[in-house]
Amino acid sequence: MKELEDRIRQDGIVKAGDVLKVDAFLNHQCDVELFDHMGAEWARLFEGVPINKILTIEASGIGIACIAAQHFGNVPVVFAKKAQSINLDGEQYSTTIYSFTKKREFPVIVGRRFLSPGDHVLIIDDFLANGCALEGLIAIVESAGATVEGIGIAIEKGFQGGGDKLRERGYRVESLARLVGMDCETGELTFA
Ligand code: 5GP
C-alpha cells in the first residue's frame, strides 16, 4: 500500500536490532485517517471471506483493528490481554508469547466468552517480525475451535522470516507494507 510505504519512508526511524520506530503515526501517535485507509485496503483484500470477528493483541493492535472493523460490517474486535500470570480457572484461553521488542516471554489471555467454535477470525497486528505474536494468537483461535480466515499486518519485516513461515503453514497473510531490507546506519528502507 503506497500510502503506508510513503509514510514509513517519511516518518519511520530505523533503530539498531532490526527495530523500526513508527510511533509518529502507528503505535503512539495515531493517524486515524491512515488507519481508515488501511482498513479499507484489508477489506478489499479479504473481500468475500466470511469474517465475523477481528482478533488483535494489546496495545498497538487495538486502534488499527477497531478502525478496520468498520470496513468489515462493524464486527466485534477482541484483543488478547497481556497478563501477569496465567489463571487456570477455565474462563480463558491462554498462551505464552515471546516479545520481539521486550525480549522476554509473557502470558496472554482471551476470555472464552469472546471466541467460539463458529467464529471466523481475521487476526490483525501492527508488525510481523519473527511471527511469535501471531503464532500465539493463532494458537488461541484454534484452541477455541474457531477458524483463522486470514491475517492482516500493517508492516511485515520480511527479512525476519515470520511471514513466510506462516504462509508455508497455509495461512493467508496480507501485509500492507512489506520490508525486505532495513539499514540502521543509513536509514535506508527497501520494500518488496
Ligand atoms: P514477532 O512476534 O512477529 O517477532 O513481532 C511482532 C510484535 O513485536 C508486534 O506485535 C510488534 O508489537 C512488535 N514488533 C516487532 N518488530 C517491531 C518493530 O520493528 N517495531 C515496533 N515498533 N514493534 C515491533
Automatic annotation (TrEMBL):
This enzyme's EC code(s): 2.4.2.22
An example Gene Ontology molecular-function term: xanthine phosphoribosyltransferase activity
Domain of life: Bacteria
SUPFAM superfamilies according to UniProt: PRTase-like
Record-listed xanthine binding positions: L20, N27, K157
Recorded metabolic or biological pathway in which this protein acts: Purine metabolism; XMP biosynthesis via salvage pathway; XMP from xanthine: step 1/1
Catalysis performed (reactions): XMP + diphosphate = xanthine + 5-phospho-alpha-D-ribose 1-diphosphate
Function, in words: Converts the preformed base xanthine, a product of nucleic acid breakdown, to xanthosine 5'-monophosphate (XMP), so it can be reused for RNA or DNA synthesis.
Descriptive protein name: Xanthine phosphoribosyltransferase
Gene that encodes the chain: xpt
